[in-house]
Specification:
Elements: E1 5-8, E2 18-20, H1 35-43, H2 63-73, H3 77-82, H4 99-107, H5 127-137, H6 141-146, H7 152-160, H8 176-186, E3 191-196, E4 202-206, H9 211-215, E5 218-227, E6 238-242
Parallel strand pairs: 1-2, 1-5
Antiparallel strand pairs: 3-4, 5-6
Length: 249
């Protein structure tokens, strides 16, 4: 049985088994449509803020930064730190800060780069590029190709699966607020599982698999504290959980 953490969206509780989702940024209001996404992703260390306690929601995310996000939601952040992209793309040197993330995402089949051999890690990631990478991470690439490939097939899947809910395209690139919503929405989308291997491989959506549970070993629930310890040495707090998305088997 794998170790499971619980993502509580109701209470900030310190426990070995509770992963709280509350992080405050000076420029993210609770009324913002992306507030929940930002607070959850920052608690999971998938998206980080700045030293000034700011999130800069209107700032843009680069292709290198989004590669790092992809690695983190796949649970490969630590592995990527030791990996290197030297030689994979002509404009990604071994000492580039995102080298390992780019290499890992490439080796996982999530990114391909451009026809001239470049990746352009410091350019803003486009809305459709971010969606393509998320849809690929979820295992929907064969279906996306059947629906027209990039970008139409990927956009169609993202719309149907709710990945684009609450987001908007921008010609300048995907903002940090938009990326937060896209990634947050994708965490609980059922993944596509390969059911047959061979020349005529088949894939099927698996409702028991998603990035949050399958890759990050976390289940999402609403927690209600029903007993509060009064003494310092009393650790018998009682929590009740409702709306649990995944139950560990």
């Amino acid at each position: 049985m794998k170790a499971i953490k619980i993502l509580s969206l109701a209470l900030a509780i310190s426990s070995a088994f509770i992963l709280t989702s509350f992080a405050a940024f000076s420029d993210v209001e609770k009324s913002a449509s992306y507030y929940e996404a930002v607070t959850v992703l920052s608690s999971l260390h998938i998206l980080n803020g700045y030293e000034s306690n700011a999130f800069k929601p209107e700032g843009y995310v680069t292709r290198g930064e989004f590669s790092a996000i992809i690695c983190r939601i796949m649970g490969l952040g630590d592995f990527a730190n030791e990996n290197k992209a030297d030689g994979i793309f002509t404009d990604v040197t071994e000492d580039h800060w995102a080298s390992g993330y780019i290499a890992t995402a490439y080796q996982a089949g999530i990114i391909n780069g451009f026809g001239d051999g470049t990746f352009k890690p410091d350019e803003n990631v486009k809305y459709e590029e971010a969606i393509k990478m998320l849809v690929s991470t979820l295992g929907y690439t064969p279906k996306a190709h059947a629906l027209g490939g990039y970008p139409t097939g990927y956009m169609t899947i993202a719309n149907v699966e709710g990945i684009t809910t609450g987001t908007a395209n921008s010609l300048e690139g995907a903002t940090r607020a938009t990326v937060a919503r896209l990634v947050f929405n994708a965490l609980t989308v059922p993944m596509m599982d390969q059911t047959y291997y061979g020349p005529e491989a088949t894939f099927q959506k698996n409702i028991d698999m998603n990035l949050l549970y399958t890759k990050l070993n976390i289940i999402k629930a609403i927690a209600i504290l029903t007993k509060l310890p009064l003494a310092k040495n009393d650790s018998n707090a009682v929590l009740e959980y409702t709306d649990i998305d995944r139950v560990a088997q």
